[in-house]
Every structure is written in C-alpha cells, then in structure tokens.
Amino acid sequence: MDRSPLRKLQEVQFALVELQLYLDLNPDDQRAVKQYKELTEQLTEAKRQYEKERGPLRQYGNSSSPDRWVWHKTPWPWEIEY
C-alpha cells in the first residue's frame, strides 16, 4: 500500500509515542531502544522529505522549508483524504 507522506509521518509519530511509553516502564530493553532510534531517524527523514515536497510542517521559524509562506496553498486537516 502506497501511503501519503502525511500518513507516513503520523504512523511513525504514533509508533514513537508508543515506544516512549513502553520504554518508560522497560528502560533496559535494548531491542526497543534500537527500534526507537531507527524510528527517530525515519521521522527526521520523513519530515525533511515532506517539507521539501509539500511545504512546512511547523511555524514560528522552526521549519527547514525554504518556502515558509505557503500555508494558504496547503489543505486544512479536514480536507486531507487518506
């Protein structure tokens, strides 16, 4: 299944939140720590790719997108089809 870039971001972020909760209770689980690090790298790359193709994800100067003023060109969250 081909996922949209936004969907991929959401999935990786969800997995990271779940792993954070798990690691709060199991901090010595090295397999989970490794998976957390891998997902963190995937999230960083997914954000970079999304912003390159579709514009900034964040505001207040935190976006790495060279074109910061495209908010009016992107859909509102309720307009996105998954």
TrEMBL record:
Key words, A-Z: Capsid protein, Virion
Tree of life domain: Bacteria
Positions of the Protein CotJB domain: 6-79
Protein name, entry field: Spore coat protein CotJB
Species annotation: Brevibacillus brevis (Bacillus brevis)
